Amino acid sequence: MADNGISRRRLIGTAGATGLALGAAGGAAGYAAAPSDASGASSTGRAASLTSLGTDEVMFHGKHQPGITTPVQSRGHLVAFDLAAGAGRKEAAALLRRWSATAERLMAGKATTGEDTDVARDAGPSSLTVTFGFGHSFFGRTGLEKQRPSALDPLPDFSSDHLDKARSDGDLWVQIGANDPLVAFHALRAIQKEAGDAARVRWQMNGFNRSPGATAQPMTTRNLMGQIDGSNNPKPSQDDFDRRIYVPASGAAQGPSWMAGGSYVVVRRIRMLLDDWEKLGVKDQEAVIGRHKSDGSPLTGGMETTEPKLEKAGADGKYVIALNAHARITRPDQNGGSAMLRRPFSYHDGFDKGGEPDAGLLFVCWQADPLRGFVPVQRKLDRGDALSEFIRHEASGLFAVPGGAAKGEYVGQRLLEG
Amino acid sequence: MADNGISRRRLIGTAGATGLALGAAGGAAGYAAAPSDASGASSTGRAASLTSLGTDEVMFHGKHQPGITTPVQSRGHLVAFDLAAGAGRKEAAALLRRWSATAERLMAGKATTGEDTDVARDAGPSSLTVTFGFGHSFFGRTGLEKQRPSALDPLPDFSSDHLDKARSDGDLWVQIGANDPLVAFHALRAIQKEAGDAARVRWQMNGFNRSPGATAQPMTTRNLMGQIDGSNNPKPSQDDFDRRIYVPASGAAQGPSWMAGGSYVVVRRIRMLLDDWEKLGVKDQEAVIGRHKSDGSPLTGGMETTEPKLEKAGADGKYVIALNAHARITRPDQNGGSAMLRRPFSYHDGFDKGGEPDAGLLFVCWQADPLRGFVPVQRKLDRGDALSEFIRHEASGLFAVPGGAAKGEYVGQRLLEG
User: Fold this and answer.
1) CA-CA distance, A203 to A214, in Å (whole number)?
2) pTM for the whole thing?
3) Closest Cα in chain B, distance from residue A160 (Å)
4) Is A206 helix (H, G, I), strand (E, B) or coil?
């Protein structure tokens, strides 16, 4: 009864053509579009978000996997799997082949092969993306140790870590994003079903962001502390954007060749201690961050895109942006030019017994090399970030996300059949 | 620093005017609009959903509270509070006054009074609704036993109940819905903050529905079993719609006069056993429900709005719609004409240790009298619904939701100052 092979997109074709007149930035949000999780910096990139209704489709095939520079969606699922006992390289290859085929179908708005749950029925692709990664433990379990990139070496311990191992790491990692929660859930369930006997869920987290259209253009998203998030993000218009985010095709120093076009993702579940944070008041919050809360502009003036004037002192002789301000510590030129692309989701899993929301950020950041991206920044934050007393890192993961699959190929094929 | 008094709507005025050309059904979705949680029955009512972008505003003041016939939003929070020890009628009255003022401001896209968290900053009202109700225990704690409606008498026990008392009942209940998850979270946090020392959170649940624009018009939402939900909903176009859903202004048989224009809400957290359900296959699923999964039409033919032919037999001599089919048991004319307006959210709180999603339906239904709405239907379901082996009622609440506040009034004022 499932309409396999029939694109759900066809079902909403009428709406796209006549029901809703889309704005100037019509058309599908291809995954080469600019990230919308950054600040107001990139209004041309952002424009795509406002048209992200059901008909928007992201391409599965390409040089890079989707879900990295795709405008961030309003609903996200992160899920890690461990290979089942007895499953090795062969089973992993078959699994990635199944997962890739499913991702391609669902991202095009089609039903799954086999019996579909119908949860996404009637809906368009809704900018669905499915992204696959491999954890450190994957390579031992599949006899592929020699192919394990050194970039997957465990992250150093940070003093602020309160990590729950059961919600950290994993052999395989899948990121699902969509602008419709039922489309996202449908994909999550389909991916889980395709795992079959080869892998089981290790941990799973749900996140969200601004809905397309809730704010004016350029679309602005905030985290649950009320801050504009990702002001420091590298911009796709920068010459060195690709070099910072993606592993180059050549250059052995960058790791194994199967990672060409890939990226490394650091995932941190960062609990926000909102009761303490909100007691601070806006003035003190701004001192902690080093930026104005209203528009993300540095305390030294300008707009969100203006460079902070770190040397500027106030009438009291002190730095306007304090030495421990988050914006100072995370500023790329304070970290040897390191940079990462933040593409987070917020999370909220109800209230704890003390009446405080179990809420915060599913921090997801992308880089060509974690040792030049996340690690040096987090080391500095760990030593002196004024924000650290208001957050708690509760889970952590680091995954190698290979380049995109060419037509007829599946994600990770160059590793698993190399 | 919070821009109190400045409507956030102004901030996105440009987008509304030029950035996005809305379709034919422009304008705010007033709360007299038809529910969108029902089937494809009411396409004129549904049309409003597709324009539910940031600028859409629902009115706080009116004959009825918002959030009952408002088109269902993509994000929802349900939260129950208990009055603090020592808090009585006076504190409750002050609380409802504060809550009403906050709801009115936020639904108009304004910041809170006092320091705002800024989480909803930049966003429009996004169809935010905030709805308040009183539980059975509220009346004892405030010395208002004489004003307690008999309709609030505890629901009977059902054999399929597996109720968690800690996530059931409560003195006060608040339903928050919005088409943007940050707008909804902002309101939840503001409501919690306003509770101050007068009340503390008893339980809280998060839900979701289809995003506006994800499907064609008429907008269709499904539950996590893949079913179109609410096909039996009474339609606002029906003569007796108001009589079924709202307590009339006069008629002592209907309960105390302070409930005029109000409604009773039954809230059930219904876990779906999705692994079992999905193993069934579509044919067997359709036999359980008595409707086609694809479009919600009865197995006896027609469209979703077609009346099921309950007497029709198949070639095998058996009823086409089985005696225990969900659609037969819940059909209004099988229950003395009882009817309720279902307006649910789906929920998904990660996976349990067995690898099954902790997911299902936050069933929310509205009626003038639970003894003629929810109770008789649930009694019949309890005895012989084929669906019952695939679901589990895990939490329950019943609340008296008074009529809407007139200008200058707060919700519940006629009770608390009566």
Assistant:
1) 31
2) 0.89
3) 25
4) strand
